[in-house]
Amino acid sequence: MSAKTTSRQSVLSSLKSRWKTSRRLKQFTQYIDSLPPGDHPEERVIPYRSPVDDREQRLYVSSADYRCMLIDRHTQDHKIKEFFKLVSEGGYQQYVDIGANYGEFVTGSLSAASHTLAIEANPIVARCLRRSFRDHKQVKVIDRAVSASNEILQMRINPQYSGGNRLVEEGNETPEYFLDDSSFILDVPCQKLSEVLNTELIDQQRVAIKMDVEGHESVLIEELLEWLDLQRTEQLLLMFEYNANSEHAFDRLMCQVERLVDLDFELSTICSRKVDFTDRERYSSENWREAFKQTCEVILERKA
Q1: Of 286, 285, 284, 282, whose CA–CA distance to 296 is shortest?
Q2: What is the value of pTM for the model shown?
Q3: CATH classification of 3-302 is 3.40.50.150, yes or no?
Q4: What is the pLDDT of residue 304?
Q5: Which contiguous run of DSSP H or E holds residue 34?
Q6: Is the alpha carbon torsion for 79, 81, 82, 87 positive or negative?
Q7: What are the residue ranges spanned by the domains of the chain?
Q8: CB atoms within 10 A of CB 14
């Protein structure tokens, strides 16, 4: 029996013991088996077409990760397309993807930006991410977490659903994710976000940043504000996901957003579900808090 077959049987056995819906498990295993193999037995390759320019990019994914099926369903196309429309219109050449996962948003940056930092702390996903973009010199993968300090932090890793990966924070009682009982805690290296930006960005005049950090937004935005020098960075575009994971630090998050609004950042949102999207919802400096009444992608932009 080949190593690839043995590995695949091990994965399926693990999945079967935890999945509560046999129909969903069957659907997932059939989908995974339809994908071409990657460089390792536990990897598959998705021939992914970017919604930004319809360019095909081979995305390496874990064969145990349910999220790869969601990638192939293009559930985030409206977010990616709208965000990189702003990137192109604003002339942002430096793109930072914090929580890059398998690189859906990174594919959009290939034609929209000249330099991309793809930050992913999950070592399983980061290895796939590095393989996917190894032929793109403008993409640099950083396989560590970013926060407000240089230290070792704990991360909750879910090998069967990478969309639930998040740093472990005191007081952060995040809701249970799909297949969350397969999660484990892993020590991961962490670097101050400001240090990464100062060290890795080629040009700091116009910077676009996307965060998908499952509840760690308030910490990173506060660190971003400490880094921000409006004499140096004339334009900044920021997008982050607001959902139930943000509730534990809601007041802190509102303080950081208010600071950005006071610095003349314009706030808009993109709805979570592609089927509901028609256009961004825009808010004024007076009613911006209304944006945080539903799950959405929050966009803050300060133009020159």
Answers
A1: 282
A2: 0.91
A3: yes
A4: 84
A5: helix 22-34
A6: positive
A7: 3-302
A8: 14
